[in-house]
Amino acid sequence: MDRAQLRRSGLLLAVAFALAAGPAAAQQKPAEPPKPAAKEEEPFWAIGRPAGEVTAKMAPVPAFPIPTPADKLPIGKIKLPPGFKIEVWASDVFDARGMRQGDKGTVFVSSLFGAGKIYAITDKGGKREVKTIAEKLFLPNGIEFHKGSLYVATPKDITRYDNIEASLDNPPKPVMVYDKLPGDVPHGWKFIKIGPDGKLYVPVGAPCNICDPSDKYSQIFRMNLDGTGVESVVKGMRNTVGFDWHPKTKELWFGDNQRDWLAEDMPLDELNRVTKQGQHFGFPFCHSGMMTDPQYGWGKSCADYATPALLLGPHAAPLGMRFYTGKMFPAKYQNAIFLARHGPWNKSQKFAADVVAVFVDDKGNARMEPFLTGLVENNQYLGRPADVLVLKDGSLLVSDDHNGAIYRVSYGK
To answer: pLDDT tens digits, residue range 344-398?
Structure first.
């Protein structure tokens, strides 16, 4: 075979190979790049968190997973004004939050994330017995007692347990009062109370850290006790978990937790005074009555909104509060507010975790001073007050959800 024949044979083989390989090659798809791992959904409390080593370590402070034994509670660390004393009133009340006292003396206690229960605590000759009367509930922080019935509010609805003190061992099935609450988890848990007008007051917090929510959020509503006649009382409220009415003026006062992640020392949480229905307290446009929001405050002025009656500290987390109407404490505390500050989680230096006394003058001006302190040590919480309750004898109960306990503060000369 000469060179010309070899060249022709090589070309033919090359063409044949190309024709044979072509269709197969055309059928092969190029390798796809690996898919990125699914991004873990950010928890609602972390949305808006600035990047950085310090903020990356910040997260809500978890309560102890089991109640602290009575002999391990931080009673010895707590400080009170002269003449006052504190004792453990009840222990083994996991995740103790809101408190109400029944007509027969039963103290009802709600819980939140950890337990999902409602407790009833009875006192028999100085010995307290803790009973669980409802469980597996959805964030049942809000409770109220009225004319023999216990009202329980979750983010979704409000129910009522009738004649409850007569049936603690066999609680009745709850009666539905209202089932049209939004149901959001962020700031969805409630603090409910019946006002001087006989209506049930129910807050609906903002479903976010910072946003411009729809008309069904960031308000305190009131309704008849059968769930009818719902109307708005307060607007521009981010998240209240405690409110009460002045015993003389009947004005509504409420604590308001301000937005997170703006700065270490701003905004300052608020105590607000409602002087007329429909007042707007600034959220999300103005914070602490002094600064407009960097995202939603453009074109707004804090002068257009109600000014806080008192600033409670950065991220102090005001929760339960009551005007003192008992007779046990000294006269200076009559009609003063006892307010529980839960203490911040998104601040590098812990503070608060206390109960403050707020004194209100005839013009509605407010000032506060320490009352129950000592629960912050080495930048850690020893306990975290969640609610306060004035008992019929004039003493003050303080719930501590961190330890699953309730303390009693009394006074004696």
So the answer is: 999 999 999 999 999 999 999 999 999 999 999 999 999 999 999 999 999 999 9
The number of angstroms, rounded, from the C-alpha of 84 to the middle of its chain's C-alpha atoms is 29
Token pair listed for 140: 């049942």
Number of Cβ within a 10 Å radius of residue 84: 19
Burial label for 180, CB within 10 Å (0-12, 13-18, 19+), is exposed
Please state whether the predicted TM-score (pTM) of the whole model is above 0.85.
yes
Q: What is the mean pLDDT of each run of 10 residues along the chain (413 residues)?
A: 42 37 42 57 89 92 94 98 98 97 98 96 91 98 98 98 97 98 97 98 98 95 98 98 98 98 97 98 98 98 98 98 98 98 96 98 97 98 98 98 98 88
State whether the Cα torsion 394-398-399-403 is positive or negative: negative
- Strand pairing class (385-390; 396-400): antiparallel
CA dihedral of residues 399, 403, 404, 406 (deg, nearest 10): -30
Is the Cα dihedral 245, 249, 250, 251 positive or negative? negative
